[in-house]
Amino acid sequence: MASCILAVWAGVLCSGVGRAFEVNLDTSEVPELADWGQQAKELCEEWQPRLCHLLASKGYQPVDSIRIYMQKTDRGIADTGGGRIRISSGWVEQHPEDIGLVFHELVHVIQSYGHGGPGWLIEGIADYLRWAIYEGKPQEWFPVPDQAQGYRQSYRVCGGFLLWLESDRSPGIVKKLNTALRRGQYTETMFQEQADLPLDELWIAYVQDRKHPSGPEQDTDPKPATAHEN
Question: Half-sphere exposure (CA, 13 Å, Cβ side) for 79?
Answer without folding.
Answer: 6
